[in-house]
Amino acid sequence: MYVYPWHDTAAGLIRGVDNLAMPTELEGLYRHLVERGKIRQLDNYDATLLHIFSRDVLRRIKERDTSWEAMVPQEVAQMIQKRRFFGYISDGSVG
Fold first, then answer.
1. Interacting residues of 7 by C-beta distance below 8 A, sequence separation 6+
2. Does 72 map to a domain?
3. Which of 38, 58, 65, 68 is the most buried (most CB within 10 A)?
4. What is the model's pLDDT at position 91?
5. pLDDT tens per residue, range 20-31
6. How many domains does the chain have?
């Protein structure tokens, strides 16, 4: 399993494999899987994008908040709009 890091705004940290908060009863299993290479940290990420969460993008699409378009690559936005993925509804304007 590959872990993509995320920005933990409450703690002011970038969270990943090495500093993930884990329930005590799962800590041993988690460490075992990390040490055996079954859970790995992705290292080729763009830290400037860590504030974007897919659930926020989906919520904005459903709420017809066009700010979601700046949160995904242009090609992805076009595909979502063209195929009306994730409940996308056009506002009817031409632009």
1. 13, 14, 15, 47, 50, 51
2. yes
3. 68
4. 72
5. 989 999 999 999
6. 2
pLDDT for residue 95:
40
Whether 37 is covered by a domain: the verdict is: yes
Residue 93 forms part of a structural domain: no
User: Cα–Cα–Cα angle for 76, 82, 85, nearest 5°?
Assistant: 70
R_g over Cα of the chain: 18
Per-residue pLDDT, 92: 60
Print the SS3 string covering the chain.
CEECCEEECCCCEEECHHHCCCCHHHHHHHHHHHHCCCCEECCCCCHHHCCCCHHHHHHHHHCCCHHHHHHCCHHHHHHHHHHCHHHCCCCCCCC
Residues of the chain with pLDDT under 50: 93-95
**Structural domain for 83, as ranges:** 54-87
